[in-house]
């Protein structure tokens, strides 16, 4: 039975449960939620569909586990990045670099999450995923608000600006290709340049913040790729 709208649960991530979750995530990334099915997952892993049901119950519950696990990782990493940098400008830049680095370092999960944003918003079984995403959005908005309060950022509509950033980064899965000519840090630098260039009260540090080989970019990459 699918979990209720307000249910949360511990996501199994090791052993057979982890294998099932990984294959399902790749299937959603490649074919979308509707195209992913237990038969294909079972065939790839050499197990029965009953084994998947034993671990996760329903497809909705497996999907909920994937989204919950994804957002838990992102929240942990976001807090690590905020702790690593002192200024609001550096913190915001680090989060923007992270948006693009996820297209490389956690690509299947990121594509699966981004292509099913509408499903996340409407499926009653995914309440915990929505709660975690809202928590991440609040964290992002708090960086804006602190920057405005300490004078680093010009006064802006925080809610609208944050949604514009999330909306644009949400579609990166449709055009960004790691094997192409663009690097994740290079695109992240462009994102920093566009956004920070429009809200910084003092733009003297913009070139440093938007340097893909600079301290913020490389520190963000290191923190996201170090076990």
UniProtKB/TrEMBL annotation:
Keyword annotations for this protein, in alphabetical order, are: DNA-binding, Repressor, Transcription, Transcription regulation
Q: Which residues form the HTH tetR-type domain?
A: 14-74
Keyword Cell inner membrane assigned to the entry: answer is no
- Give me the positions annotated for DNA binding: 37-56
The answer to whether the entry has keyword Protease is no
Which Gene3D superfamilies does the entry mention? Homeodomain-like, Tetracycline Repressor, domain 2
| SUPFAM superfamilies linked | Homeodomain-like, Tetracyclin repressor-like, C-terminal domain
Q: Which PANTHER family does the record associate with it?
A: HTH-TYPE TRANSCRIPTIONAL REGULATOR RUTR, HTH-TYPE TRANSCRIPTIONAL REPRESSOR KSTR2
Protein name (Swiss-Prot/TrEMBL): TetR/AcrR family transcriptional regulator
State the organism named in the record: Branchiibius cervicis
Organism lineage: Bacteria, Bacillati, Actinomycetota, Actinomycetes, Micrococcales
